[in-house]
Each structure stands twice: as structure tokens, then as C-alpha cells.
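mind reviewing this fold:
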Amino acid sequence: MSQSHQTIEPWLRGIIRCPQCKGEVTDVPAASGGTEVAELRCDTCHLAYPVEGGVPVLLVDLARRTDS
């Protein structure tokens, strides 16, 4: 799988939760559209986690704040 094709496996997507609040995260599509996911966003604690090569990087220290 190439770096530009960033899809998350369905079985993995079903169990992913925000590591900070344990809430559900929503997919944020890449600007190019299609099935690529750019990040996973938690609306409860206002953090966005990057997806790199189809792998979610669920580290609070690397998350981006979305409330400002």
C-alpha cells in the first residue's frame, strides 16, 4: 500500500477510540477526496489524530487541537 492511499481497515476502525477521553472518533477525509482519511477527530476533547500510511497515530502528544 502506498503512502498516498490511506484507508483504515474496517476491523480496526470499529475498535478505535480517543486515547484521551475514550470517546468515538470520526474520519476526516483528505482534501483530495476519495477514500483516504487524513485524520481522526474527537469532538469531545477537540483533538485530531493524524493517519499516516493508513495507520492512525493515536498519541495525545502528536494530536492537533481543533477548538481554536
User: Anything to note?
Assistant: The domain at 10-65 is CATH 2.20.25.10 (N-terminal domain of TfIIb).
